[in-house]
Amino acid sequence: MTGSAVLDLLLVVLLVVYAVFGFRRGFILSVGSFIGIVAGATAAFFAIPLVTGWVTASQFRLPVILVVVVALIALGQGAGSALGRVIRRRVDKTPLRAIDRLLGAAITLVAAALVVSMLAFGFGSLGVPVVSQAIGSSTVVSTIARVTPDPVKALEAKVRSLFALDGLPRLFEEIGTGTPLPVPASGATAAQQASARSVVKITGNAYQCGQNQSGSGFVSSSGRVVTNAHVVAGVTQPVVLTPSGSTYTGRVVYFNAVQDLAVIAVNGLPTAPLPLGADLVTGATAVFDGYPLGGPFLSSPAAVQNVATINSPDIYGANPSPREVYYLAADVQEGNSGGPLIDAAGSVTGVIFARSATTSHLGFAMTTQELAPVVAQAQGLSAAVSSGTCTRG
Hints:
The chain is α+β, with helices and mostly antiparallel strands.
């Protein structure tokens, strides 16, 4: 039996048990438990990235996280149940008892599904291949994800980002930013919408820094994904998640800390590659695709304020070298790193790699000047290479 099948079986049993449990307890007592479970799960949601940083020994990290998660949820449920039990004693003496029981089953099932969603997101972002693959292939998790509104998933990512490490580089502009432009209104073309199928989420565990890393990337050729070097720095087994929900373990076959570019080879990846397009000019609009804050896929609008050559440091903040970049009027977030800049025809015209340290809604993307040579050789790269040392967030 596969890991995802075992996970599905356990989750189905869990959901059924919670539904029966909710029926027996009733609505009022279940509300108390629901509040306690959500409070405990929320605490666990925050605790996962914190515990990851505290536990330096990689072999103990996952067991410690599991213990902390279970303890926090149990503590929350116990406290909530105690409060609900006091109130239910009064309701049981009225005709509302039957309605109380049915509503109890419903709300408990919803609460359990919400907890599964939150914890699947948290554990899936750990960058542990066996865990990410089991979650990514789980029918139960994917079903819950489909019925969970995107705003809820985005909120999960936003909240977790407050406690997670931020690996997105900041640049202090050394030249004029061009004429400031407003972030354009969203409105992707059909070609841009189609390109989303080739944009992937990348997670990994940089054990030497005791941190999880998350970013975006795009399929450049058969079985090859291009991303930023800082997304996979120090990661030996990057995990690639496709928009369809499939999860793959890859290997880094190209890594350049100066260019901030990397290539991941992914065996069996069926996703179609994106073509490279011509560089954009000042004033042009585009979209940049990715997984901001490690959450759901998002395609966001951008406008080119300027195209210029700057002295940009490597991913470790040293060895500055000339690089042609786009200055973008765009809301670039952590997790967008490595994601493609897409023109109206659906072609890649750059890669997001940083945002401004001083100006809001100003992001940076490298042009095809450095990107094109890497894409050209990506298909022929197959041997794993060192992914350098991690950059602490």
